[in-house]
Amino acid sequence: MTVQLVPLAEQHLPALAPMLQDPDVDRFTRFPTPIPDDFLPGLLSRYQAGRAKGTHDLFGALEGDRLVGLALAPRIDTEARELELGYLIDPAQRGRGLATALLRELTDWAFATHRPIRIGLMIDAANVASQKVAARVGYQLEGTLRSSYVKPGIRSDVQIWSRLDSDPPA
Fold this sequence. Notes:
alpha+beta; Aminopeptidase; 36% strand; globular
């Protein structure tokens, strides 16, 4: 299974929009509920500015020429040498190993580009599929933040997973 990460661009937004309507994306991400009409152009603009500043980044995940997911680095702290990563897969494409391929590619990008000491993932404790993906890519469960704020009206137990630059490859 091969996934290519490319900087998210305007031409990807029409394919991304239906993915954000998925109940699991709504439940397990920090994207607003409901998704406002101007959300995707604003997200793209914020992340393009973040890419220029080196504070965050956003990629489309392609299988061939088809957008199958989204890969994010919502927090890049160059001074601390830490990143937070996130990902989502088109619901129609789940169960094919794409999330594992995407997270592996995103993790490799993070280590090669930013040379962090620590990469973190924040995964809802109820999102067992994402936990399995993290484990397959070599992330270690550190603990759980109980009743953590996710977005207005939603609190959830959130697991913290990490990979260190000293960890063996997955």
